[in-house]
Amino acid sequence: MLYYLYATPVASVIFVLTIGLSLYVFSNPQWYTKLMLHPYTLHRDKSKWYMVFTSGLIHKDWMHLIFNMMTFYYFGFGLENMFVQFSGVLGHVLFAALYVVSLILSDIPTLIRQKNNPSYYSLGASGAICAVLFSFIMFQPKAMLGLFMVIPIPAYLFAFLFLGYCIWASKKAYDNINHDAHLFGALAGLGLTILLYPWSISHLLSQFL
To answer: What is the pTM of this model?
Structure first.
């Protein structure tokens, strides 16, 4: 863990800040309504723009937090390391940009769709973490991931199944999960990775040729 703290300072800051703020709101639930994304309010009061960021730093409960932080730990630290290998010190900045910009982009569809729904709230880092995961998959498409945390499956197949499920769930599921954020976070991660490293496309294709 000490190596990760030294080699991946941005991922370490995100990791610690997300856990710390989530634990704080667990003990101080009155902060949920202040920090969660509420499209209805944001549409009418642009001074609440910070909700886009603060909502990505808090979680609903322990299970939500643990699942997201486990995913970020396994892929976020590794991805920042890869960015540094590709771009030197600038890689830290590029990793931060990918995370923050993806967090914003993943919420845009929700802001549009729910702007007139006063009862809709959203929280969690899932959009940005999906971006991190899919960026990682661009560089390591044959890495083995755990479907349902148990079944081994190659990363590229997981990506197709995940995107298909998100598209279906966004239209059909009624489970209080923001599937739009997952879908558009993943797409943002792919798009930004290609923008930052255009050669990642040829690298991805070379893994299957």
So the answer is: 0.89
Region for 143 from its dihedrals, namely left if φ exceeds 0, alpha if ψ lies in -120 to 50, beta otherwise = beta
* Cα separation, 20 vs 30, whole angstroms: 16
User: pLDDT by residue (tens digit) across 58-117?
Assistant: 998 888 898 888 889 888 999 999 999 999 999 999 999 999 999 999 999 899 989 999
For residue 151, what are the β-bridge partners?
Answer: 147
- 8-state DSSP, 152: E
**3-class secondary-structure state, position 154:** strand
Write down all domains in the chain, each with its CATH number in brackets.
1-207 (1.20.1540.10)
DSSP codes, 62-118: HHHHHHHHHHHHHHHHHHHHHHHHHHTTHHHHHHHHHHHHHHHHHHHHHHHHTTT-T
Q: Which residues share a beta bridge with 145? A: 153
Distance between CA 161 and CA 179 in Å, rounded?
A: 14
Contacts of 154-163 with CB under 8 Å at 24 or more apart are 156/208, 159/134, 159/186, 162/130, 162/186
Terminal-residue alpha carbon distance, the chain: 36
CA distance 120 to 23: 23
Residue 75 CB coordination number (10 Å) = 22
